[in-house]
Amino acid sequence: QVQLVESGGGLVQPGGSLRLSCAASGFTFRHSAMRWYRQAPGKERELVATISSTGTASYYADSVKGRFTISRDNGKNTAFLQMSSLKPEDTAVYYCNAVITNSWGQGTQVTVSS
In sequence order, which residues have a C-beta less than 8 Å from that of residue 56 and are 6 or more positions away? Predict the structure, then answer.
């Protein structure tokens, strides 16, 4: 079955960095665009970044543009989200999504606080 497993979240100080990973299985990863979403307490889930199936095209929400980078390794069936210059407002549960199957991982908590 389709499985997405996020990892790499944690507690980081403002201005710090984290790298999230999303390990995929159960579908042909290289055929699917991948997305990262986040959901802060009391807020709706927000699209953060999208990467095409080949990795040649990407999209970022204005709130993270210039600070976050989405990437993928089709040989390892893994998508990544490199987050830099983190702000307290980046605090949320981060989820990866496989567009071709509309499947979701369980999420990983990112907390930005001093």
Answer: none
Contact status, residue 105 vs residue 91, Cβ threshold 8 Å: no
Looking at the chain, the whole-number percentage of residues with pLDDT higher than 90 is 97
How far is Cα 98 from Cα 17, in angstroms, rounded to an integer?
24
Strand (E) or helix (H) holding 82: strand 78-83
**In this predicted model, what pLDDT tens digit does every residue of 37-95 receive, in sequence order?**
999 999 999 999 999 999 999 999 999 999 999 999 999 999 999 999 999 999 999 99
Query: Taking a C-beta distance cutoff of 8 angstroms, is the pair 4, 96 a contact?
Result: yes
